[in-house]
Write the structure tokens for this entry.
Amino acid sequence: MKNLAIIPARSGSKGVKDKNIKLLNGKPLLAYTIEVAKESKVFDEIFVSTDSVEYAEIAKEWGANVPFLRSKELATDTASTWDVVKDTLRQYLKNGINFDTVSILQPTSPLRKPEDIINGYNQMTLKEANAIVSVCEMDHSPLWGNTLPEDGSLKDFLNKEILNLPRQSLPTYYRINGALYIAKTEYALQANSLYDDKCYAITMSKENSIDIDDELDFIMAETIIMKYNQE
């Protein structure tokens, strides 16, 4: 089975300038994902999808392949990740290279482990899945949240049935953490959504699920990495 990893890393991030190559504990952010993809020994090709020559050179320095740059049309805020995936697969097909599976590894999830990727592929086989998506427990139950009216009133903010329940008795909720998506190539090319009855979750720890979006996330990730290095 031939497996492709796509690491989407376009330039021009809005929140943090050049977020995908910003140094995190001395290494470019995307380097963490490249290294973990290599350490998993799952992939036949690790491809960084970028519109930037600078990003491409950094990706190559850390061991990824960038045989072509992303088009301007697919480097906008309106282009979806799955548009990028489909275009990438077709580009490889043009060169006679076909893959059985494709994985998306967001560079903004630097703390995922090789074991998370391996677990995803094991579950893909065991469950005969079309797709696998990583999730983690939510920090706070959505049952304790609601929208606010314009006047800020908390009347009926919470369901009366849960008001007196201890937090431990509430059901556990999970969220998609963005760290790992795996799909059969044929399925990825044809489907409009991954989330059907042949798509399954793998759980990751909340610590390893950190998603870099702003400067505070960088500080949190760096703190965790330093803690790991001391252990």
Observations:
- Helices lie at 29-40, 53-61, 81-94, 114-126, 185-190, 215-230.
- The chain has a mean pLDDT of 94.
